[in-house]
Amino acid sequence: MRLGIQAGVSLREVIPQLSAFLDFHSTLSVDLVSDHPCRDGLRAQVDLALQIIKPEEAKAAMRLITSTPRVLVASPKYLVRKGMPSSPAALIAHSIIVGPSPSGGRPWLFSRNGKAVSLSIDGKITADACEMAMASAVSGAGILSTGLWSCQAEIDSGTLIRVLEGWDMGDIKLYASLPAGAASKTVARSFVSHLASEFHKQDLYIELP
Questions:
Q1: What residue stretches are annotated with the LysR substrate-binding domain (predicted)?
Q2: Which of 52, 71, 108, 110 matches a 20 to 30 Å C-alpha distance to 88?
Q3: Half-sphere exposure for 202 (CA within 13 Å, toward CB)
Q4: Residues of the chain with CATH 3.40.190.10
């Protein structure tokens, strides 16, 4: 099975599920293929593609697997140096790290208690890979917007701290695509069901269509 994982998908959540799946399919071999979200070739190369896209871009053949809250994080040393922003508007005075995102440079949206705020952000650091964006945040370079699943371990360890935690920034949604449609391999369909089931067990903000 050729499994395509788009840059920006949390490998911390997906790859461990692959290991468990292989325990039940001992004769199966898996070829992992990565691709950047700005390129369109991923789905044509694989049996199953896992991608983060905007809901309005999802096609009928795609299945919503799970979603995770978008959050802001920064290192303790950055916040000691620059201070904790008290509102979305205060982010203008901060160094922002922009990682790969399906929003494509659109303004950041915040909501709380019925109040909505839209903020255009210029990145002090722009990275096209989550690992580079995360390393920049951990090093104290600025405030990063990312999915909670990508930084939960750092939050738990105190390496990163939530910023503007009381504000809702929406969700990051993970979709599965079977490029071959009805002719897709049975094992690829099984892995989609396996992912959805395991995310549900772990309460990873599951949303089933």
A1: 2-198
A2: 52
A3: 16
A4: 2-67+172-207
Q: How many CB atoms lie within 10 A of CB 209?
A: 9
- Cα–Cα distances in angstroms (integers) from residue 201 to residues 3, 23, 206, in the given order: 22, 18, 9
Name which residue leads in pLDDT, 91 or 185.
Answer: 91
Residue 74: strand pairing partners:
161
Neighbours of 121 (CB within 10 A): 17
Task: State pLDDT tens for residues 118-129.
Answer: 999 888 999 888
Distance from CA of residue 86 to its chain's centroid? 25
The secondary structure of 155-174 as a DSSP string is: HHHTSSEEESTTSB--EEEE
| pLDDT score of 51 | 84
Rounded to the nearest integer, the mean pLDDT of the chain is: 84
Contact 154, 130 (CB under 8 A): no
Class at the top of the CATH hierarchy for domain 68-171: alpha beta
Domain 2-67+172-207 has CATH 3.40.50.170: no
Helices (DSSP H) in 103-202: which residue ranges? 130-138, 148-157, 186-201
Give alpha helix (H) positions in the chain: 11-24, 42-45, 76-82, 130-138, 148-157, 186-201
Please give the Cα distance from 78 to 10 (Å, whole number).
Answer: 24
